[in-house]
Each structure stands twice: as C-alpha cells, then as structure tokens.
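Re: [ENG-882] Designed sequences occasionally contain unexpected residues at chain ends

Forwarding the minimal case from QA. Structure tokens:
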C-alpha cells in the first residue's frame, strides 16, 4: 500500500526501498513515512550482527518535529552539514551542506529565531556565518537525544518481534534512567540510599567484630583465671574442655565421654526390652550389638539425646552412641 501511495514521489523504484511509518500513526489520518535504501540498511545491520551487536531498534538521526524549529551544525569546517527540524522546515526535516547560501534556506519562523546548536568543531563557523550565538553540543549528545525519540525504523521485514520490542523498550527506559535530566533526582536518591546502606553495613560489621573480640577476650580471661597453668591461649573453648577433662580424670569424676554416663543415658531411652548381645566401648564411643532400632524410635531418641551432646546411630543390628561433633 505504501509503495502504491508514494510511487510518484520517489526517485528510486519502490521495491528497492524500505518504508517505516511515523509512531502513533492512525488510519484515516496523515502520517510521516521514513524511506531509505533497503540494501544499504540491510548491509549495515548485517555488519553489526556479524560482530555480535545485533540492534534492537533503528533510530533516524533526524525526524520531523512539531515543536519550535531547531538547527544543528555538524561535521567539520570544510565539510559542515546543517540539520533542520521543527515548525517551518520544508518536509519536516532536512539535512543540507552548509555554505554561504545556506542562510537563505533557513525556515521562516517569524520573530522567534530558531534554536542554533553546533558541534565544537564548527561552532565558530556557525557564529561567523549566521551572526548568532550558538549552544555547543557534541555529536554524542545529539545522537543520544535522537535515540530518546519514539521513532523506530525496524518495521516490516526489519521488524525485531515482540521480544525484541520488549528488550528495546527496556533499553530505552534504562538509557533514560541513566542520562535523562528528569531522572537525576532519582539517581541521586538511589546513590544516597546505597551509600547509607553501605555505611550501615560497615557499621554493623564493625560492631559485630567488636562484640566477637570482646567475647573472645572474655573466654580467654575465663580460661586463664580458671586454669592459671595455661600460658598461651589458642582456642579457648577447646583448651577449656581439655583442662576440664584432665581435671575430671585427676579427681576420678565421670564425664559425658565415660562408659557409665553413656550407658545410663541409653538406658533412660527404654528403646528395647532385650539386653544387647555385646557391649564395646572405645574412646567415647559405645557400641551395643544385637539391637534392632526402628527409624522413628531413632529420631525420637536423638531428640532426647541432643541436649546431652550425644547422638545415636544404627549400623545394622548395632546401636552406636557417640558424642556429637563439636560437643
């Protein structure tokens, strides 16, 4: 349909061209149509995809604008170009080589002079030729502003699909978040929030380290006060346990690792009615052979033994009672 409507206004054959409608175009109304050479556009897209930079969006550098007229001077002094868009610009947007006669082609805007922007390399040329002050903008700023527009030439055979459109929209929102002046307060607020959280986390970590150091010093003081013969403290809880075990052995007092307390703890469980066929006790491990324990009884027994620092396991017809790791 576009080829038929625009055929008489095109210099090239319609099949060799790519068409893209203005965003928000409605049936029955007028709309701008962007036209470019299809092979030229496809070649550039293929080159980007070949290096792993497949574009999700195709943005025109210059678009028709319903706002005030704006002039951009870009390029180099020897090869400068004037980009025009906005009210009064023929065709909505134009790109013209900049020369002595270009001033006569500027849009008629009445009393209000169009905004004049120029890249640093051609700023002096613009002021000298047009006798007006200019606002300096880099090419990157100009292209970034163009990328924030709603136009997308990826239509028809160059359409990127719904997933690509979603990714394109997400990318547009991300770029706006990073660069748009309207989002600057939100960016500062987020940075301040992250900074406050970082300071808070560091403060909490410092306080936790201080508490751990105080607890470590208290453990060391308890060890050296209780057992003055300990001169070097490496692991206070472990050294305390060893000293207590040595003291019990010297006084003949029973500990939780001795046979009698472990037999007494097992007897209080009342898991089985029959007596074990054999009993073995080695290095704090009690093995009672000839006993069959159900899984449910084993779970209940371990719940009762856990406060005593003991654990009961079943190895075939042998019940093994030992201290839990770290007890």
């Amino acid at each position: 349909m576009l080829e038929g409507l625009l055929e008489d206004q095109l210099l090239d054959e319609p099949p060799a061209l790519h068409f893209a409608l203005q965003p928000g175009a409605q049936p029955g109304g007028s709309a701008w149509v962007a036209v470019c050479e299809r092979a030229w556009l496809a070649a550039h897209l293929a080159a980007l995809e070949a290096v792993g930079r497949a574009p999700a969006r195709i943005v025109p550098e210059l678009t028709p604008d319903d706002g005030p007229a704006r002039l951009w001077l870009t390029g180099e002094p020897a090869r400068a170009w004037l980009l025009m868009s906005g009210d009064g610009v023929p065709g909505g947007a134009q790109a013209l080589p900049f020369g002595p006669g270009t001033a006569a082609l500027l849009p008629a805007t009445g009393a209000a002079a169009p905004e004049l922007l120029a890249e640093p390399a051609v700023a002096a040329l613009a002021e000298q030729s047009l006798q007006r002050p200019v606002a300096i903008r880099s090419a990157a700023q100009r292209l970034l502003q163009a990328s924030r527009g709603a136009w997308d030439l990826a239509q028809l055979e160059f359409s990127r699909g719904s997933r690509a459109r979603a990714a394109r929209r997400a990318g547009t929102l991300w770029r706006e978040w990073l660069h748009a002046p309207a989002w600057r307060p939100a960016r500062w607020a987020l940075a301040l929030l992250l900074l406050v959280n970082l300071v808070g986390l560091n403060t909490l970590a410092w306080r936790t380290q201080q508490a751990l150091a105080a607890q470590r010093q208290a453990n060391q003081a308890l060890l050296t006060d209780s057992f003055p013969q300990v001169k070097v403290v490496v692991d206070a809880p472990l050294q305390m346990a060893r000293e207590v075990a040595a003291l019990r052995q010297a006084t003949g007092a029973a500990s939780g690792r001795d046979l009698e307390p472990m037999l007494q703890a097992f007897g209080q469980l009342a898991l089985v009615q029959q007596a074990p066929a054999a009993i073995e006790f080695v290095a704090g491990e009690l093995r009672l052979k000839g006993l069959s324990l159900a899984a449910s009884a084993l779970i209940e027994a371990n719940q009762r033994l856990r406060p005593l620092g003991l654990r009961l396991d079943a190895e075939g017809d042998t019940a093994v009672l030992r201290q839990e790791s770290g007890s």
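QA comment: On inspection the terminal residues look reasonable. The longest strand covers residues 70-76. Proposing we downgrade this to a documentation issue.
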